[in-house]
Design a protein that fits this description.
single chain; about 210 residues; alpha+beta; 8 helices; binds flavin mononucleotide
Length: about 210
């Protein structure tokens, strides 16, 4: 059996995808489910995920994405779009969902709802967006690990104009802002300058401090 660590060594920020190969439905669904299961602060899940396969839209995104070919060559493009604000409506919706799913209300939980409403209400819209964007990045981590687990190539990407992508995908009308994108697919057999280069990470000693 291949270990998770060997798969994390196998994965890399793919530079050239094979445009003829598509991620099968079952693998895609498991990657999406891993993203959906990502934990978030207070369980708010303050972002949405768009799975873009439309060729025309992806060509437009590539044009505002540093002309990165992965955006059009991969079979699927994930767009992580954070809430543009953490409004009382959005907070209440998640707390109400918790009550509905668990089938009971709880005094402590309701007190926490009020506390959180106070916290997000005291922050600016931009601060709330930045907080939501941080949560989207946790899901980005899930996506990358899940893709590697499924032997699917993925490239995390910040190299695009978020306002332009929002315009292309109509995100403003949904009170969302794009944060990070991830093409999913399979590496091309030729033409990727990165595929055979060694992975570069700081050593364990230079990265981890054990505080005993
Ligand atoms: C948030 C984030 C944004 C990134 N943006 C891009 C990008 O726009 N284009 C690209 O080719 N790689 C991008 N990368 C890939 C990184 O350069 C790469 O993950 C890093 O150098 C580590 O290499 P590895 O992923 O191959 O192990 C990004 C990575 C992250 C995590």
């Amino acid at each position: 059996m291949t270990s998770l660590i060997s798969k994390l060594n196998w994965r890399y920020a793919t530079k050239k995808f094979d445009a003829a190969k598509a991620v099968p439905h079952d693998k895609l669904e498991r990657i999406l489910e891993a993203i959906r299961l990502t934990p978030t602060s207070s369980g708010l899940q303050p972002f949405e995920l768009l799975v873009v396969t439309n060729a025309e839209l992806r060509a437009k995104i590539r044009a505002v994405g540093w002309d990165q070919a992965q955006i059009t060559d991969a079979s699927h493009l994930l767009v992580f779009a954070a809430w543009d604000d953490i409004t009382p409506e959005r907070v209440n919706k998640m707390f109400d969902l918790t009550n509905e799913v668990r089938g009971f209300t709880n005094e402590g939980w309701e007190a926490y709802r009020q506390k959180l409403l106070g916290i997000v209400g005291a922050r600016s819209k931009e601060e709330n967006f930045q907080s939501a964007a941080k949560q989207a990045y946790i899901a980005l981590g899930s996506a990358l690990i899940a893709a590697a687990f499924e032997d699917v190539d993925a490239t995390p990407m910040e190299g695009f104009d978020p306002a332009a992508v929002d315009e292309i995908l109509g995100l403003k009308a949904k009170n969302l802002r794009s944060v990070v994108i991830v093409p999913l697919g399979y590496r091309a057999t030729e033409g990727d300058w990165l595929v055979d280069l060694k992975k570069v990470r700081r050593s364990r000693e230079n990265f981890i401090t054990e505080v005993k």
